[in-house]
């Protein structure tokens, strides 16, 4: 690895001084010498004063992932240890909990480690890399994590853009420490048991960021018929059943996800509320299934709509807002009198204000009014450290006609 001298534009310098963790390729004035993924980029301002240091990624439009800004320091094992100690310290309450053993330990940029995620599933840790710049530093980082947390295994997951490039022999789903799990890892969330396929599953094996919203749904589900749209592996479904729902109907386009939902319910079948809950599944496109359900008489006391990100690029935001409005309009028609709608967005490009106004509009066009009882965001293990880090938003609303 080399140290690169990088000069940036005045605007980029201002952003860096403000704590932004990204330097885009168009903001770079010069780089000497030519860099490779994982080189340390030492950033200077227009007066040639040290500003920051970060990881260089020549194949990404986010050319530099800023690790530190301010006074010069060394990026070594001591630096990594300090960063991980700070991040893990923010999760002290979760680490002490026996009811929740699946959560995020490092949340990328928001914990000062851009493009690096570390999730815990019981005693198995999963690293996910969103930049090849981390690969040359993995051995040193794994040694630090092992000394701090003593996990049974550490599994490596690679974002698609990283897996497509030069990985130095690393593959998605490989083991960095211990033995590669040959079955899903079982972890706890809010006292309930779930499986995580840490080798082949989505993200790092599960979607951990909705934990608090799932607990809230559990508290609202007693005696209700619940519709879980975009149910994935059934996080909301299982919580609703545990909360005393009489019936939960899970909808997802993925049969594999619905099969995982059934297994997660079975993991909690010793609970009377779960074993008594009637569970229905429908495999199919959510919009088509919602349209079909509208022709039937059954209505639901609680409808949950938690779609995937509709806007991975800024140009997709208008279409995403139209989709949210359409979903809201279709969902309110399935909510029983004075029932509840829970609607979520996981796109950072869609602001909370736009999201809320859009779903209100969609409900209004369907002849309903939303009385919002709660707006929620990120749980404690998914902190927000910069504007683009705020992606998760959810609305809990009573539906009035």
List the helices and strands and how they pair.
Blueprint: E1 3-8, H1 10-17, E2 22-24, E3 28-32, E4 40-44, E5 50-56, E6 62-69, H2 77-89, H3 92-95, E7 102-107, E8 116-121, E9 124-129, H4 138-149, E10 153-158, H5 160-163, E11 174-177, E12 185-189, E13 192-196, H6 211-220, E14 225-229, H7 235-242, E15 247-252, H8 255-267, H9 272-276, E16 278-283, H10 286-293, E17 300-305, H11 317-332, E18 335-345, H12 352-365, E19 369-376, E20 393-400
Helix pairs in contact: 2-4, 6-7, 11-12
Structure report:
It is a single chain. The protein folds into three domains: 3-69, PUA domain (Archaeosine Trna-guanine Transglycosylase, Chain: A, domain 4, Roll); 77-186, RNA methyltransferase domain (HRMD) like (Transcription Regulator spoIIAA), CATH 3.30.750; 209-400, 3-Layer(aba) Sandwich (Rossmann fold), CATH 3.40.50.150. The protein contains twelve helices and 20 strands. It has helices at 10-17, 77-89, 92-95, 138-149, 160-163, 211-220, 235-242, 255-267, 272-276, 286-293, 317-332, 352-365, and strands spanning 3-8, 22-24, 28-32, 40-44, 50-56, 62-69, 102-107, 116-121, 124-129, 153-158, 174-177, 185-189, 192-196, 225-229, 247-252, 278-283, 300-305, 335-345, 369-376, 393-400. α2 (77-89) packs across α4. The protein is globular.
Broad CATH class of the largest domain: Alpha Beta
According to CATH, the homologous superfamily of the largest domain is: Vaccinia Virus protein VP39
Ranges where pLDDT stays below 50 over 5 or more residues in a row are none
Sheet with most strands: 7 strands, mixed
Helix run count: 12
Tell me, briefly, the overall form: globular
Strand content: 25-35%
Helical residues, percent? 25-40%
State the CATH architecture of the largest domain. Answer: 3-Layer(aba) Sandwich
Number of strands: 20
N/C terminus separation:
63 Å
How confident is the prediction overall: mean pLDDT? Answer: 96
């Amino acid at each position: 690895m080399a140290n690169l001298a990088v000069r940036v534009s005045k605007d980029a310098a201002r952003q860096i001084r403000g704590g932004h963790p990204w330097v885009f390729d168009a903001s770079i004035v010069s780089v000497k010498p030519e860099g490779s993924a994982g080189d340390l980029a030492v950033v200077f301002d227009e007066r040639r004063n040290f500003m920051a240091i970060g990881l260089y990624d020549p194949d990404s439009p986010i050319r530099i992932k800023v690790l530190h800004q301010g006074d010069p320091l060394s990026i070594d094992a001591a630096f990594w240890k300090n960063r991980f100690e700070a991040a893990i310290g923010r999760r002290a309450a979760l680490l002490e909990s026996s009811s929740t053993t699946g959560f995020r330990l490092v949340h990328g940029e928001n914990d000062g480690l851009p493009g690096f995620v570390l999730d815990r599933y019981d005693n198995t840790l999963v690293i996910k890399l969103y930049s090849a710049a981390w690969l040359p530093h993995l051995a040193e980082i794994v040694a630090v994590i092992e000394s701090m947390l003593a996990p049974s295994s550490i599994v490596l997951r690679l974002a698609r853009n990283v897996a497509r490039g030069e990985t130095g022999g690393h593959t998605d789903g490989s083991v960095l420490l211990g033995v590669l799990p040959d079955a899903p890892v079982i972890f706890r969330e809010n006292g309930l048991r779930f499986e995580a396929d840490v080798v082949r599953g989505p993200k790092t094996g599960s979607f951990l960021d909705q934990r608090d919203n799932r607990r809230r749904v559990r508290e609202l589900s007693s005696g209700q018929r619940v519709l879980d749209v975009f149910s994935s592996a059934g996080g909301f479904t299982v919580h609703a059943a545990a909360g005393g729902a009489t019936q939960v109907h899970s909808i997802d386009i993925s049969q594999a996800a619905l099969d995982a939902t059934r297994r997660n319910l079975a993991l909690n079948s010793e609970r009377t509320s779960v074993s008594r809950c009637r569970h229905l599944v429908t495999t199919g496109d959510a919009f088509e299934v919602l349209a079909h359900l509208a022709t039937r008489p059954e209505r639901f006391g609680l409808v949950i709509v938690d779609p995937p990100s509709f806007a991975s690029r800024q140009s997709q935001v208008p279409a995403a807002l139209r989709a949210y409005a359409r979903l809201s309009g279709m969902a309110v028609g399935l909510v029983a009198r004075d029932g509840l709608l829970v609607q979520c967005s996981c796109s950072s490009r869609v602001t909370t204000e736009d999201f809320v106004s859009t779903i209100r509009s969609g409900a209004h066009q369907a002849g309903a009014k939303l009385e919002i009882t709660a707006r929620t965001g990120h749980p404690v293990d998914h902190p927000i450290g910069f504007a683009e880090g705020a992606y998760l938003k959810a609305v809990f609303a009573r539906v009035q006609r």
